Amino acid sequence: MSFLPQLLYPAYEARLLRSLKGKPQPKHVAIMADGNRRWAREAGFTDISHGHRQGAKKIGEMISWCADTDIEVVTIYLLSTENLKRDQQEVQLLFDIISDVVTHLSQGDLGCQVRLVGHLNLLPEKIRDKMQRATEKTAENNGVIVNVAVGYGGRQEIVDAVQELIRAEAAQGTTADEMAEHVNAQAITEHLYTKGLPDPDLVIRTSGEQRLSGFLLWQAAYSEIWFTDTYWPAFRKIDFLRALRDYSQRSRRFGK
């Protein structure tokens, strides 16, 4: 009977898609792709790289799922500043896998526009340059905008935004008192890694963890959040559509 779910999935996917018609859908979805290592261990692999590689394959799939929705921007959290403190062999593996993901997205038939968001100076120059060259090839694409969060920390992003704002003001000869007046929410927003893009409407986190872990702290202030116990490598289109269906049934209050 193991073949039965495979036969039913397409019908269930179609049903979920129909349930979204005419309903509010997110324009910007942020995804915390968590649980790669745990998936590998529970699947019986002693080498956790299998989890990272399976998780990497899932990213292109997920972007393709957006074609049937109203989603225009996806931000996916792949490497945090905290992750950089892991065993150096694993960190190097992550660098290689993530750079391959960026290259794949830039060369595929998805037509997406790929951007890097994070404190990129924390990355090895060779890896950083490879990824930046790949993203430059997608600048004219008009598909889904895909922000790849790598070397990313939410607090660091806010620090970087404020520092960039102050440097810009100082370059114009702004006095300290005037500068203090110019530091406001809108000015900081204009210097974030995601400047020019809407804040995420929906944040999805896989693996059962129920926290933001520093992801888009500024931008996600009023985002809806959806958690699932499913590990990222096992995340399916029906899981994705369930998250969108749940979003469509919520009443957003924006802090009210």
TrEMBL record:
Catalytic site: D34, N83 (proton acceptor)
Q: Which Pfam families match?
A: Prenyltransf
Query: Which residues are noted in the entry as Mg(2+)-binding?
Result: D34, E224
Molecular function per GO: ditrans,polycis-polyprenyl diphosphate synthase [(2E,6E)-farnesyl diphosphate specific] activity; magnesium ion binding; Z-farnesyl diphosphate synthase activity
Any single GO CC term annotated in Swiss-Prot or TrEMBL for this entry = plasma membrane
Q: Does the keyword Plastid apply?
A: no
Keyword set, alphabetical order: Magnesium, Metal-binding, Transferase
Residues noted as binding substrate in the record, renumbered to the chain: G35, N36, R37, R38, W39, H52, S80, T81, E82, R86, R205, R211, L212, S213
Q: Give the cofactor binding note.
A: Binds 2 magnesium ions per subunit.
The cofactor(s) it depends on are: Mg(2+)
Please provide the Gene Ontology terms (biological process) for this protein: polyprenol biosynthetic process
Top-level taxon of the source organism: Bacteria
UniProt-listed Enzyme Commission number(s): 2.5.1.-
Metal-binding among keywords: yes
By sequence similarity, the record places it as follows: Belongs to the UPP synthase family. Z-FPP synthase subfamily.
Q: Which HAMAP family match?
A: ISPT (MF_01139)
Q: Subunit notes for this chain? A: Homodimer.
What the protein does comes down to: Catalyzes the condensation of isopentenyl diphosphate (IPP) with allylic pyrophosphates generating different type of terpenoids.
Q: Quote the protein name from its UniProt record.
A: Isoprenyl transferase
What organism is recorded for this protein? Answer: Corynebacterium camporealensis
Its organism's taxonomic lineage begins at: Bacteria, Bacillati, Actinomycetota, Actinomycetes, Mycobacteriales
